[in-house]
Design a protein that fits this description.
Blueprint (H helix, E strand, L loop, with lengths): L10 E12 L2 E12 L3 E5 L6 H9 L6 E6 L2 E4 L13 E5 L10 H6 L7 H14 L15 H13 L5 E5 L7 H18 L2 E6 L2 H7 L2 E6 L2 E6 L1 H6 L4 H6 L4 E8 L2 E4 L2 E4 L8 E6 L4 E5 L10 E7 L3 E9 L5 E9 L10 E5 L4 E5 L5
Parallel strand pairs: 3-8, 3-9, 6-7, 7-8
Antiparallel strand pairs: 1-2, 1-4, 4-5, 9-10, 11-12, 11-14, 12-13, 14-20, 15-19, 16-17, 17-18
Helix pairs in contact: 4-5
Bound molecules: adenosine-5'-triphosphate (ATP).
Adenosine-5'-triphosphate (ATP) binds next to β2 and α1.
Length: about 375
């Protein structure tokens, strides 16, 4: 696919060759990453892959062990250089457990980092942010009077109030229920884009990353596996881990012939693989185009094993028969309006844009 156009603005954060260990445990290795002005970059990956460690290094909550951190073109972290504490870095922090000051009102909480402004200005700026996050009418409330989601929005407004050049957000929506989460994600993205700050956001949720991010850095075991736009990661994954991280896939093996691999449901291109090579074929459930057959020929065998309506989509377990008599069980995801009966004869075709072919693991 053609690369998405990259924003041209200057980096507000640059990390070079970051390595970090806790005792003998290596948490982050050889990480380089930039966040440009107005850009949201998501650190995505499974639990323990080093996302929070990277954020804490940028925030100054961990002392840098190896590598270099630049904020707005100025090196603020380099081993041997004096550690710059979090409050001296122009970054806004919104962590999952960001606590509000219980004895201050919502308005005072948001105005907390704005002491430099005269009282009226401070109030105006705080109210403006509360308004943008739908919280203006709670300005005089105290934290204990708010729900968890409301408290998170106030914490976010407080972090954004001093107009930091960089926002660091660590799973900021994780304690919200699904419906509220969608709304607050939406509001947060809106405010970040309006303020024009760069943002580095940690999440383990691929959908959240795809919604929030201009670019995603997908991590595994302390390394960045792939860095790119949501579309690049979803549509041009560099390895099987990246494919699997975005959801369940059907997997099978085949042999490359004339640049293609044959599967019982159709052929897929195998770019970069040699003829005769064993290939690992990864088929996203939505790549299977399933059509009900009203009058199947007598020798037709492909059929639906099970169908579940999940709302917008239905999940089908299907049995696909190849010409050579082989049968294959696959999962297909189809629009929710299509809910065939068990046993329904079908034909299956392949949308190869959602099929990914890699060399089969040696010895597999
Ligand atoms: P999660 O999504 O679960 O928060 P993460 O990707 O943010 O995970 P980190 O919190 O950065 O991962 O942790 C990376 C690795 O370092 C993990 O293996 C973790 O157990 C380890 N680790 C993190 N903090 C410490 C610490 N203070 N002392 C020792 N080991 C730590």
């Amino acid at each position: 696919i053609a690369p998405d156009t990259a924003p041209e603005s200057a980096p507000v954060l640059a990390m070079h060759n970051i390595r970090h260990a806790y005792g003998h445990h290596l948490a982050v290795e050889d990480v380089g990453l930039e966040v440009r002005q107005g850009e949201v970059v998501c650190l995505l990956g499974p639990s323990g892959c080093g996302k929070t460690t990277l954020l804490r290094i940028v925030a100054g909550l961990e002392v840098l062990q190896q590598g270099r951190v630049e904020l707005d073109g100025v090196t603020i972290g380099r081993p041997g250089q004096a550690h710059v504490p979090p409050e001296k870095r122009n970054v806004g922090l919104a962590f999952q457990d960001s606590a509000l000051f219980p004895h201050l009102s919502v308005l005072q909480n948001v105005g907390f980092g704005l002491e430099a402004l005269p009282g009226r200005e401070r109030r105006k700026r705080a109210l403006e942010l509360l308004d943008q996050l739908g919280m203006a009418r709670y300005a005089e409330s105290y934290p204990h009077m708010l729900s968890g989601g409301q408290q998170q929005r106030v914490a976010l407004a407080r972090a954004l109030a001093p107009a930091p050049q960089l926002m660091l957000l660590d799973e900021p929506f994780s304690s919200l229920d699904a419906r509220l989460r969608d709304r607050i994600r939406d509001d947060t993205l809106h405010v970040l884009k309006r303020v024009g700050a760069g943002a580095l956001l940690v999440t383990h949720d691929p959908e959240e990353a795809m919604f929030m991010a201009d670019r995603i850095a997908l991590m595994r075991d302390g390394h960045i596996v792939q860095l790119g736009t949501p579309r690049e990661l979803y549509c041009a994954p560099v390895d099987p881990f990246v494919v699997s991280f975005f959801g369940e896939v059907n997997e099978l093996e085949g042999e490359v012939r004339q640049g293609r691999v044959a599967t019982p449901v159709g052929e897929a291109p195998a770019p970069g693989l040699a003829d005769g090579q064993r290939a690992r074929v990864m088929i996203r459930p939505e790549a299977l185009r399933v059509v009900a057959l009203e009058e199947p020929p007598a020798d037709h065998h492909s059929h639906v094993i099970m169908a579940k309506l999940l709302g917008r989509t239905s999940l089908l377990h299907i049995c696909a028969h190849a010409g050579d008599g082989r049968e294959l069980h696959l999962h297909a995801r189809v629009p929710g309006v299509f809910l065939p009966d068990e046993g329904q004869p079908i034909t299956v075709r392949l949308d190869t844009s959602q099929v990914f072919v890699f060399p089969a693991a040696a010895g597999a």
